């Protein structure tokens, strides 16, 4: 039997982004993901990138976004702008995480469709899946169970983004696709002490402890949760790959396929940074989802695989941090 997904996965003459002079709008180009995508597009020879900083274009403002699309008419759009943060930020600012993300993605997706964009890629996150999803998590685990409470607001916004792309594909035969990255890291990450994700938070904390000669560093939770990490250059590579090769109703998982416990991650970051003191576990802080390893075999089946190991990626990120972040 042909499912609705199979039927609408094919749009006649759905264009991939192959013309290197095509106008490509990367929303959020100064962030971790957006900056890596811009570099990757340049490496692939794209010459006509449309970029706006947050100060130049506030994507939560519907009228401004509509005016921008009406005047620029980008042919391809990659949505890497969002309100993003780690477990503490998600848990502390639920209104921002649901409200800002719904506004940004809705404004961009609708304006892109109405102004003739040929293809749009929306980025979600592995937190869209139920807290106790089967592992590794297949795409069809979406909406099969209760979400992790620390990030349900953000997850609901991201699920709405996937569904909006699907609805526009079904109703308008428009080529909107979605990619769900696992936990990302790399140059240009957010190293805020409380609001960032675990990897940049620990890199900064270990680095500062090394510089100050401290004997101990506090790490949140029990250390037992498992996380899958992907270097942002691999994610950027997958994004360009999907823009060129994928046109389908279903969102695609983008992961490394490798998981570590937070304790193992902390030991690895400690080693790369060269901090020699002890780890103290603050179990008053939440662990979040116990495990979220994604099944990325659909993307692998199309021919994409990650290349950067966690160790190499950490060394690369710490080099960038040492050279670029004010001490
Ligand atoms: N980092 C991760 O581990 C993961 C990220 N993702 C997804 O990847 C995407 C990018 O995340 P990431 O690069 O990490 O996030 P960042 O916070 O590094 O970058 C987000 C970018 O969006 C911009 N932005 C935010 N709000 C607005 C606004 N109202 N108007 C214009 N620009 C705005 C930010 O600009 P400014 O800083 O000036 O506000 C920033 O440049 C998101 O969709 C996220 O959900 C998915 C899985 C994991
Ligand atoms: C990408 C993903 O990121 C978020 O989910 P998360 O994976 O739980 O994110 P996290 O990186 O903040 O934490 C991972 C683990 O690490 C532990 N942990 C230890 N020490 C620190 C620490 O110092 N900071 C942080 N942030 N976590 C720490 C922490 O307690 C947790 O067990 C979502 O909200 C959502 O944004 C999303 O989609």
TrEMBL record:
Under the heading SUPFAM superfamilies, the entry gives: NAD(P)-binding Rossmann-fold domains (SSF51735)
The record's CDD domains line, in alphabetical order, gives:
GDP_FS_SDR_e
Query: Domain NAD-dependent epimerase/dehydratase, which positions?
Result: 24-255
Keyword field: Isomerase, Multifunctional enzyme, NADP, Oxidoreductase
**BP terms from Gene Ontology:** 'de novo' GDP-L-fucose biosynthetic process
- The name under which this protein is listed is GDP-L-fucose synthase
- What InterPro entries would the database entry show? Epimerase_deHydtase, GDP_fucose/colitose_synth, NAD(P)-bd_dom_sf
- The record's EC number reads 1.1.1.271
Originating organism: Lupinus angustifolius (Narrow-leaved blue lupine)
According to UniProt, this protein's pathway is: Nucleotide-sugar biosynthesis; GDP-L-fucose biosynthesis via de novo pathway; GDP-L-fucose from GDP-alpha-D-mannose: step 2/2
